[in-house]
Specification:
The protein has 4 helices and 27 strands. It has 413 residues and is mainly β. It has one domain: Neuraminidase (6 Propeller), CATH 2.120.10. The structure holds calcium ion (CA). Calcium ion (CA) binds next to loops.
Length: 413
């Protein structure tokens, strides 16, 4: 089994048997445009995962490389504990990487790839939240002793520098097992975090549920439905306009191309599939214009590389950014005109974070579904779809959508 597939199984924990969601597969790429200029802003990372932006700083969760501590069975064999998980910061103005948190728990097989450990980070007014994965059972964590006690938890590094406990998600799984009636088993591997207003959201890939954390408690919001025997694993959760909650998924083995979807959670109703045709989502974010950016760990069946970053416009059009440039990407953060992506996210020591321009002209159209594919003989960026006036000028934009000249502006209009 290749490393991509191993990571997916580490996230999914014992993915269920063969089968796939009955949704359209990703179709042909078209309209290649000029290559985007992708930059490496951080390197030498150990299994880099989720990202968050502070003022001039990018924070990176590193799942570590495991270690020579106690060992427990994992989905691909034995995994061993080490204090190699970390949160690393990158100074986006002055450059340089420096540690923010070190010696966090990490579980990994021999070699240190596909680790489970710090999986996501998020900032709010209280400080830095750190979501620590596990990829094991409550009994497995207990067998690791005190050194493994932070696996499967959410911590908060307060502005006073003190690391506090927010929630014990492994304990919640052990006591409640929300997907138990579906046969999901007792496992926890929290992977995705969102701390925007309205409460803290966690996507637990091992437990197959989305959780709301707050008020000293944990509330299960949703268990994604199984389909044809496949356990769809929620890996990412993000809030959209109006407080809507979106959940992205990594499907189970055999990881059919185009089988992953984005679901919208609705109070008191089953999750609603709102976008389909994706492959193995690891992160997701909502842009300033309401576009949804989804990060695919892979593009091919069986998690064949490369990965992909797809922008889904509010009108359904899809574009791929940095096409062909990503390898096993695992984390995404959006700034005004760029995306930051954790790349080689299943690798020890060779993980990177890339800066990718959101320039509309640097993307290529992705025809995923005839019902949402752009129409007309030629797709063209509209003036408002460039991420900055500089990009608009650079692309030489002079005409409106469909080749029509833009409406003249009246002074004072
Ligand atoms: Ca469960």
């Amino acid at each position: 089994m290749d490393r991509a597939r191993r990571l997916a199984c580490a996230v999914a924990m014992c993915c269920a048997a063969a089968g796939a969601l009955g949704v359209p597969a990703a179709g042909a790429h078209a309209s290649a445009r000029r290559a985007p200029s992708v930059e490496v802003v951080a390197s030498g990372l150990d299994n880099p995962r989720g990202l968050t932006l502070g003022r001039g700083v990018l924070l990176i969760a590193e799942a570590g490389t495991g270690g020579d501590g106690a060992c427990v069975p994992g989905p691909e064999g034995e995994v061993c504990l080490g204090a190699t998980g970390a949160v690393t910061a990158v100074d986006l103005h002055g450059g340089g990487q420096f540690p923010v948190l070190t010696e966090l728990p990490s579980l990994a097989p021999s070699g240190g790839g596909n680790a489970n450990g710090p999986h996501d980070v998020s900032l709010d007014r209280k400080g830095l939240y750190v979501l620590i994965g596990a990829g094991t059972t409550p009994a497995g964590r207990a067998a690791l002793g005190p050194a493994g006690a932070l696996l499967g938890t959410l911590k908060l590094l307060g502005r006073d520098g003190v690391l506090r406990s927010v929630a014990d998600l492994m304990a919640f799984e052990g006591a409640n097992d929300p997907d138990g009636p579906l046969g999901g088993g007792l496992e926890s591997n929290p992977f995705g975090l969102d701390t925007h207003s309205g409460g803290i959201l966690v996507a637990d890939g091992g437990a197959n549920d989305v959780l709301l954390v707050g008020g000293g408690g944990v509330v299960p919001l949703a268990v994604l439905p199984f389909s044809r025997g496949v356990q769809p694993v929620p890996t990412t959760v993000a809030r959209g306009r109006g407080g809507a909650i979106y959940v992205g998924q990594l499907t189970g083995a055999p990881f059919a191309a185009g089988a992953a979807g984005v679901w919208k959670l609705l109070p008191g109703r089953p999750p609603q599939l709102v976008a389909s045709g994706f492959t193995a989502l690891t992160d997701m974010a909502v842009g300033r214009d309401g576009s949804l950016y989804v990060l695919q760990f892979a593009t091919g069946a069986g998690l064949e590389q490369p990965g992909a970053l797809i922008r889904v416009r509010p009108d359904g059009r899809r574009e791929e950014l940095a096409a062909g440039r990503l390898t096993a990407p695992t984390g995404l953060a959006l700034d005004r005109s760029v995306a930051y992506v954790s790349d080689h996210g299943d690798q020890p020591r060779s993980g990177e974070v890339l800066r990718i321009p959101l320039d509309c002209a640097a993307t290529r159209r992705v025809a995923v579904d005839a019902s949402v594919a752009p129409r007309g003989p030629r797709w063209q960026c509209t003036a408002s779809e460039y991420s900055s006036p500089e990009e608009r000028r650079h692309a030489g934009h002079r005409r409106g959508p469909g080749g029509a000249p833009p409406a003249p502006r009246r002074p004072g209009a």
